[in-house]
Amino acid sequence: MTPETSSMENVAQALKQVAEHGERFMDNDSSARERLVASARALILAVETPMDSLLWHVWALPTRTAAARIAVDLKIFETAVEDGGHPKSSEDLAAVTGASPTLVKRISRALVSMGMLAEQGPGLYTPNSFTKLLANKEYAAGIIFNFDINMESLAKLPEYLKKTNFQNPENALDGPFQYANDNKPAFSWLVERPETFEAFHLYIHSLRQHRPSWTDMYPAQARLVSGLKPDGDASAFVDVGGSMGQILQDFRANVPQYTGRLVLQELPEVVAAATEKGVGADGRIELQVHDFFTPQPVRGARAYFMRTVLHDWPDAQCRKILTQLKDAMEPGYSRILISDCVISDEKAAWQHVSMDIFMMAQVSSRERTEHEWRALIESCGLKVTGIYSKGDGNEGLIEVYPARVRLEHKHRPIGAGAALSVLQYIFYVDKTNDSSEIPYILICA
Ligand SMILES: C[S@@+](CC[C@H](N)C(=O)[O-])C[C@H]1O[C@@H](n2cnc3c(N)ncnc32)[C@H](O)[C@@H]1O
Predict the structure, then answer these.
(1) pLDDT in tens, 390-416
(2) What is the architecture, at CATH level 2, of domain 213-402?
(3) How far is the CA of 311 from the centre of ligand 1 (A)?
(4) Strand, helix or coil for residue 196
């Protein structure tokens, strides 16, 4: 097929971008890496015929995902790196599990085509750096978790949406996941499957390790440490739905000057698993069983932190979670910190849109744009006082305070005390240019 002039122009443009970003990358500009990857992907798209692209997306990708999941059960990655990674035949790789060498060969060559394994001559396999990563349980967990939880719900998602006349899923307890999985809530489904449950926590931990930490974006010294009350609940940094405590451990390492209490709140099963792993054994992290839909037991804490918690829930449930926190906050002192994706309105990052469809299928939820975050937060009587981010496709950090109550009153005159508060408020804002630290001014005229 002769390429059209316009597509040749696209290829030329894409090549130029690759060369530019490639040069910067080779000059050790690490920030150019993401741009180089994005421009290389754009180049592939420009060079591929639409038919190539179609086959890649709808034919190749699902079969490869299944092959990768089978490879984990066959222990191909772990076996490939053994004995210094010397070349192994499919018979060698099959011996560990007693699987059919023919089957192992079919899976192994699929892995080679994905770059997950290397081939040194026909049917002789060696590990590459990707194999070495996947030989590590923490990274193989990403394959286990994503495949196991997605398998039924993504396969049934089109059918579910057709049955509901293509309405946006909004019900966490009656959505695509329940349609595909005998009406089970996703978290109950997960808790009942120890292998997938463990893989989930390992996977979210590994994801976090390879992305900028929220403490790289948020001025923790100025916003959390300065002005920290030393004792009791007021000194607490509460990680709500904090998984196995890694976020708090990272926080300890990254902000050692934070001397207040560190509280991990989770479901009973997760607290039990964290305790078993020794989280909190040194007494620095307190483990607390807490359901975030019920009243928050730590009152007036310095911060209530939630990483990838709200993206698990549709707006109605998020409002309940946020309202429980709002009721516990000390205005002017406490804040909520939300670490989650903030999707761009245009040309959204592939990581964000993949996560968005994932959340739709599993928990009838979504990733949110800045506008959607603001609307959700403001609907709870809270307000966004800062959005911090670093790089494309990562999680941002949203700082939230209680909203101020409107000062105007239509029908009755304001009393002298209230008028004084208004004057103090105006004076404070004028002096500091910071309305975020202002406590509620309740005018009950
Ligand atoms: C996506 S994970 C995020 C975990 C952790 N924040 C992180 O980023 O590593 C959501 C967490 O919310 C917890 N969770 C779910 N429902 C909960 C509830 N009702 N109360 C408290 N935690 C809950 C889950 O156990 C899970 O660990």
Answers:
(1) 878 889 999 999 997 544 444 444 455
(2) 3-Layer(aba) Sandwich (3.40)
(3) 10
(4) helix
CB 360 within 8 A of CB 343: no
User: How many angstroms separate the alpha carbon of residue 443 from the centre of ligand 1?
Assistant: 37
Answer whether 205's CB lies under 8 Å from 277's CB.
Answer: no
What pLDDT, on the 0 to 100 scale, is given for residue 390? 87
DSSP assignment string, 378-430: HTTTEEEEEEE--STTS-EEEEEEEPPPP---SSSPPPHHHHHHHHHHHHHHH
* Residue spans per domain, the chain: 1-47, 66-135, 138-205, 213-402, 405-445
**Ligand 1 closest atom vs CA 239:** 6
pLDDT score of 30: 75
Please give the share of the chain, as a percent, with pLDDT higher than 90.
Answer: 79
pLDDT higher at 428 or 40: 40
* CA 365 / ligand 1 centre spacing (Å): 14
| pLDDT tens profile 356-372 | 999 999 999 999 999 99
Active site members: 311
> Ligand 1: residues within 6 Å at CB?
187, 204, 241-243, 247, 266-267, 270, 291-293, 307-309, 312
Q: Tell me whether strands 237-240 and 262-266 are parallel, antiparallel or unpaired.
A: parallel
pLDDT at position 4: 56
Fold adopted by 66-135: Arc Repressor Mutant, subunit A (1.10.10)
Residue 208's pLDDT is 81
Rounded to 10°, the helix 101-114/61-73 angle is 130
Nearest CA to ligand 1 atom 22: 241
DSSP string of 313-333, one letter each residue: S-HHHHHHHHHHHHHH--TTT
The answer to whether residues 132 and 200 touch, using CB atoms and an 8 Å cutoff, is no
